[in-house]
Amino acid sequence: MSWQFLLDVFRAVMITLPDMHKPLEKAIEQAGGLRELGRKLGISHQAIHQWVRVPAERVLTVERITGVSRHALRPDIYPRESK
């Protein structure tokens, strides 16, 4: 493997990583902040701070609390429904 290939892969990953966090950031904002979301979920804000993405078992609750869709939060488990 060449260094250029590895560099290209790294750049591609770094471009998509921020997009993964946007729905979580939106959910935190909609809940009134990290501490408030933690309070509403009954967990510490430190636990939420460690999330890379919303855990599967918390998606529906976060959706209900914040209004951020399950698809936005976890498109890997809740893909868009085709019409």
CATH architect. name: Orthogonal Bundle
Overall geometry: extended
- Straight-line N-to-C gap: 42 Å
Q: What is the domain tally?
A: 1
Question: How does this structure look, described?
Answer:
With 83 residues, the protein is an all-alpha fold. It has one domain (3-73): lambda repressor-like DNA-binding domains (434 Repressor (Amino-terminal Domain), Orthogonal Bundle). It contains 5 helices and no strands. Helix 1 packs across helix 4 (59-66). The relative contact order is 0.13.
Present the secondary structure layout:
Elements: H1 3-31, H2 34-41, H3 45-49, H4 59-66, H5 70-73
Task: Give a quick set of tags describing it.
single chain; mainly alpha; 434 Repressor (Amino-terminal Domain); 5 helices; 83 residues; extended
Summarize the structure.
The chain is mainly α.
